Amino acid sequence: MVILDELGIYPCLKKDQSCCFSFADRYENGATIISSTWNLLIGRNL
User: Fold this and answer.
1) How far apart are CA 34 and CA 27, in angstroms?
2) pTM for this structure?
């Protein structure tokens, strides 16, 4: 799982989920939009 932040991309490691969840909470709506967009693009290419 990769979470976006102002400074770049932060990979979520299983060893430290707490910081990942804090980023996820901040960008949950944005991530949902990005995910939906990717699903549409992938679906069109299949």
Assistant:
1) 10
2) 0.26
Distance separating alpha carbons of residues 30 and 33, to the nearest angstrom: 5
Distance CA(31)–CA(24), nearest Å, equals 8
The SS3 assignment for 13 reads coil
Distance from C-alpha of 10 to C-alpha of 45, rounded to nearest angstrom: 28
Q: Distance (Å, rounded) from C-alpha 21 to C-alpha 12?
A: 9
Question: Which tokens in the block code for residue 37?
Answer: 């967009």
pLDDT, residue 41, reads 72
Measured CA to CA, the distance from residue 23 to residue 21 in angstroms comes to 5
